Amino acid sequence: MYSNRKILLAEDTIDAQELHQLASWLQSGTRLTKGPLTLDFERAFAQYIGTKHAIFVNSGSSANLLIAYALLKSGHLRNNVVIAPTVAWVTTIAPFMQFGFEVKLCDCNATDLGFDLDAFEAMCEQYQPACAILVHVLGHATDMDRLLSICKRHDVHLIEDTCEALGSEYKGQKLGSLGLAGSFSFYYGHHISTIEGGMVVLNDSYLFNVMLSIRSHGWARDLQDASMHAAWTKEYGIDEVRDLYTFYFPGFNLRSTDLNAFLGLSQLKKLESLVHKRESNFLLYRQLLPKFWSQQSPTSTLSSFAYGLLVQNRLETCKYLTSHGIESRPLICGSLARHPFWTKEKDSVDLPMASIVHDHGIYLPNHGNLSTEDIHFIADKVNEVAKPLFF
Ligand SMILES: Cc1ncc(COP(=O)(O)O)c(C=O)c1O
Questions:
Q1: β strands within the chain, DSSP E
Q2: Given this model, what pLDDT does residue 3 score?
Q3: Which residue in 45, 117, 221, 269 has the most C-beta neighbors within 10 A?
């Protein structure tokens, strides 16, 4: 029954009806660039996450970049030291490297793959960083109460890279809303898709307006705080005409478009059902793979991104799964400390748990179209070939 079936890691969330609606909207002769739908999408997304503000950008990577640069330019930071996770995505930390931050990598814990909080606390004491960025790995929160209290004690701004955890909750609060700012990705294969796309969410209105400027070249035209806009023009003696092309920051163009926002608004309507499907898929995998390590976390709603496994024989397992039409990948980046972009520039760091993930981590498909039979089939194949890793 499954011989010709391909089970993909991820599948498109944009369906034929949405494409049809998009085509009609495109034909209505609207301008398409960032406009009113972007504002609608931002408002709806902020409301969903439970923050005051949201800023739509063209990817999750751009969301991280915007946060890092806005923090630097807004005067929020007392130094340029940042603690970052080792099990993460490259663009979780790349912007901090690009902007000259001193990036200190922290190992992951063996339970939810978030920060090893003892190590994190010791690093806060040693380096006194102005900020930290975390990743909610494959949708799982770590012990956020303890993490937030460490950050509070050491006066550390916490950024949440929530690109793998849209819809997950910690004690009923959406991930991404717990720190100073959160980032999201709407790339193909994520919980919802705007083709490419990302979002920053936050409550700090000053930082929000700085981000609005930096997202669009560094001008003040997009600011939502009129008094802030007036203060800037007054300070630099800018008249109404000059104001159109006056740049307050060496900005970027990180904008998305109303086309992508159109999709975002319709995708948001499906999000809750996708979250529940992903959570039940995760629970079924865990039930069918009892011999294997599984992520355990205090996430109250788990918007699982993929099912993570640690096995002794990764190459053999992945090849066997491929031969049965099942797609798998390494468990995100493994250890960032072992990638060429890091080793070429930085001293080596000993991060043993991240290294285990690097050498033994796999992730298995999880998406809205995965059936119960698919998961049984995948688990059967894993049980046939994979050797559980004990550590
Ligand atoms: C944790 C994390 N951060 C950032 C990103 C980057 O998002 P994008 O592909 O939209 O740039 C990803 C992508 O999967 C990710 O998993």
A1: 53-57, 81-85, 102-106, 131-135, 157-161, 169-170, 173-174, 181-185, 198-202, 299-301, 307-310, 329-330, 361-364
A2: 55
A3: 45
